[in-house]
Amino acid sequence: MACDENKEIVCLRNKKGFKWLFPFIVPALLLAVLLIVMLVAYHKALGDEKSWTTEYFSMLADSCVHGTERLKLELTSESEYAGSLISNSGLQSEVMAGDFEAVFADSEAESGLVVTSSGTIVYGTSTDYETFGEAVGKASETGESVISDVEFCIDGEYRLAVAAPVTMSYGGRVIVALVYPMSILESITDVPKMDSAGNVYILRSDGLFITGRNTVDRWSDVHNRCSPALLSAATAGLTEFKDYSGGEKFLAFAKEIGMNGWYAYCAAPSAAVKQRTTRSVGIFFRITLIAVIILGGTFLYYYFVMNYGHRRQVLDRKKFAIAARQSSRAIFEYNMIKDKFYFINDCEKITMPGEMDYLTRSMGMSYVYPQDRKSIGEMVMSLKDSSTASATARVSCFGCDNSYHWYYITVTRLARKGLGSTYIIGIIEDIDEREKERIALLTKATTDGLTGLYNRDETVRLINERLQQPPDGRTSAFIIFDLDDFKGVNDTYGHDAGDRVLHFFSDMLKATFRTDDIVGRLGGDEFVVFMTYVSDNDLVKRRFSAFAESITRHRNGDDGIPYISCSAGYVTAREGDEFDKLYREADKALYRAKTIGKNCVVCGD
User: What is the value of pTM for the model shown?
Assistant: First the structure.
């Protein structure tokens, strides 16, 4: 009996003595599994070179497809923005050139073109119309924005145009086209390449190289063209060919990018592909081996070194990541030396576009609304003088869609001591709902509910603010408009007809005067226009005549709007003037206009 008890005690001691091995069983099994997976993956990669290369080239081609979609969205937005300027200002030569100059300053467009639906050139040259007339005609026919093919221009350069149909405020339609240099397409092929041995190009359907025309000598036929047979084979899948001298072998892959029948064309020397594949597999082997070692060391550290406080920190970081994920803010980092923008942590509303891990500065700016790029640029420039800056801007795709959302961006500049590398840490906050609500409230508070013009208080504030600007030698005009016999319209046709008359009258005011003129409704049938920088009094009279003619020409007798006319009085604004003083003088001139027969304009100077 004693012997049996001794055996049991020894057995228990042995169990207790080997208990320390239990924590190593799981990591040992994991290490064994990793080694097996590593060996299998290693041999599979060596025997699957073509599949890997096809997938790699396909990824490069897909990057071109995504780049084309982003470029198409950006160029179409710029053309439609130019069209909106034309729609608001009207087809007036004295302001159209300034509108296009504003568009050219914020884009890479070289020239512009405005053509009516009947083919009349309102702005631009006949040479541009002859070159890109097909795109203009297609936009007019379909009613949608059209990007032309790359065309050979008279000066020996290749260009393309983006044509957008625009409906004017008076109902007519024109086509607005912006002309861009072919070099704008280079950004589409700006994707990671296979070291320096390969490249990605854009080809037309006839095999002409659109991008990289000066670097394709070995990979194309003569005159920078790809033979139809090679392009067809590359489109069907990865294909191998020899250069035009019949010497070095190359691999090629092509994919249609979904615009004008263009193709993304990837080519690289076969030897470089094999070398990269072998090197990549070797790197994978070493990385996996290092991962195995790190995994074992980490496991030992976790079980024998890590204390409770460290585990608490890990838990706190997880809590922070979860809380940040559920908020409307995302933390990002931008490496100015490497030109890489990426999120340290994102949230449900703010994520990196597509499958990309990072963005460059040019790629990031392409997602910013064109009118807000200036504020982002000013924010970045201010970091030279200050360590912190902020801006509010509309950005697309951070919310996983193509629409623009309002974001508040705060950035802080950091410097790594001794290395000279500068980093920017920042926070992007989704303020779309709040900003839209603020804009809606501001619009409601500053505009007239019936006509959409500035209301009386906002009109007075804007004019006084304009009058306080430093004088530069140029004069302005203060004009009061009043409908003739408007009370008779209400009494005869009813107040609904009177409202339609006021709305129609306001639309004609906006269509006749410049976008930088202040147009407001003071109340009833009384309106005011403040024209900045008026060269002479005759300009006001000509503008009044054009306005009176527009009222007669665009009035539709079937919509219940009776014939109307208006009278106006105006004065010249000088340094030190205020709204109340100008109003009294212009009102006296208006009274004289009413007295001498109405439907005219009188100067009060």
Answer: 0.39
